[in-house]
């Protein structure tokens, strides 16, 4: 089993350093867009910033009903984050 954490929409978003990022990600996923190499900054429990790249998509049932998303984050360095941010 792969460990995971489910974060329902509308919950605490303090883990993201940039509030606008989560809103943009949710809006894109609501439109069934696939997220590829989306640069983001996460706030660790100790308050430090972690630079990541997010890949995510939506899974819907055969009747079109939303089932869940899957999301993968990959740690990157600040220089890579800046390069992705300016694409």
Structure notes:
The chain is 23% helix and 36% strand. The chain has helices at residues 19-30, 78-85, and strands spanning 35-43, 49-60, 66-75. Strands 1-2-3 form a three-stranded antiparallel beta sheet. The radius of gyration is 14 Å and the shape is elongated.
User: Which CATH class?
Assistant: Alpha Beta
What structural category arises from helix and sheet content? alpha+beta
Could you tell me the CATH topology label. Beta-Lactamase
CATH superfamily, by name, is PAS domain
| Count of helix runs | 2
Main sheet makeup = 3 strands, antiparallel
Would you spell out the secondary-structure blueprint of this structure?
Blueprint: H1 19-30, E1 35-43, E2 49-60, E3 66-75, H2 78-85
Antiparallel strand pairs: 1-2, 2-3
Concise synopsis of the structure shown:
The protein is an alpha+beta fold and 87 residues long. It is 23% helix and 36% strand.
What key attributes describe this structure?
Beta-Lactamase, single chain, disordered N terminus, 36% strand, 87 residues
């Amino acid at each position: 089993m792969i460990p995971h954490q489910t974060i329902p929409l509308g919950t605490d978003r303090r883990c993201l350093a940039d509030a606008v990022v989560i809103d943009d990600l949710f809006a894109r996923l609501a439109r069934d867009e696939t997220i590829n190499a989306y640069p983001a900054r996460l706030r660790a429990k100790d308050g430090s910033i972690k630079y990541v790249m997010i890949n995510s998509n939506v899974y819907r049932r055969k009747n079109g009903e939303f089932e869940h998303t899957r999301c993968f984050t990959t740690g990157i360095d600040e220089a890579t984050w800046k390069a992705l941010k300016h694409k």
